[in-house]
Amino acid sequence: MKLLLIEDDQKISSYLVQGFQQSGDVIDVANNGNDGLILALEGDYDLLIVDVMLPSKDGLAIIAELRAKGCNVPVIILSAKHSVEDKVRGLETGSDDYMVKPFSFTELQARAQALLRRTQQATSSDNHFSELKMADLVLDPFRKVVTRNSKTIHLQPREFQLLEYLLRNPARVLSKTMILEHVWDYSFDPQTNVVDVLVCRLRSKIDKDFSVKLLHTLRGVGYVLRIDG
């Protein structure tokens, strides 16, 4: 899941970034309304989490402008305002859910996942959240579950992100640079072997105990998930 958080409170931002990243999600942050609106319009996000009281442009104005421009990405409002009138105003502006501060990260995460499930069901042509399969390997993006030959495989968050990336690009060779940008959100080479180590860990979990190998290395080029032969 790729999210955009528009929030000017640094403590709340750090708390949410840590929580979602530990769950294997990618999250961008804007700390004012203008920057948040630009990112929301230009980025490809699955979900927006928007504070109401922001510098330069408030959250309700951001949501109203997004909806006016035809942007239908799901939005959860975070707000210290807790009256019924405030909640109604937020939902009428075009948000999909409304949470009052202080809040539980676990509840926010659960609401985000439920909202995305509803979005998927309402848009049958969008298979972004459907199960991904290759041979007997199956990944469920929502439940964060991976199985092979019906056997559950336990993956760490970055291992899960890498496998999902590979499954969304079957038979396509992915370079180390592409993996760094997608899994770590790096736009530079950190001059380490983190990609090789991650691939090695993932291969040991999805291929080691199975006769058909799916994850292949093309030396000097990158990595590919495919069925050979």
From TrEMBL:
User: Which superkingdom?
Assistant: Bacteria
* UniProt xrefs under SUPFAM superfamilies: C-terminal effector domain of the bipartite response regulators (SSF46894), CheY-like (SSF52172)
Question: For the OmpR/PhoB-type domain, which residue ranges apply?
Answer: 129-227
**DNA-binding region(s), chain positions:** 129-227
Has the keyword Ribonucleoprotein been applied to this entry?
Answer: no
Q: Which UniProt keywords apply?
A: DNA-binding, Phosphoprotein
> What residues does the Response regulatory domain cover?
2-116
Q: Which residues carry this modification: 4-aspartylphosphate?
A: D51
Q: What is this protein called?
A: Winged helix-turn-helix domain-containing protein
Specify the species: Spartinivicinus poritis
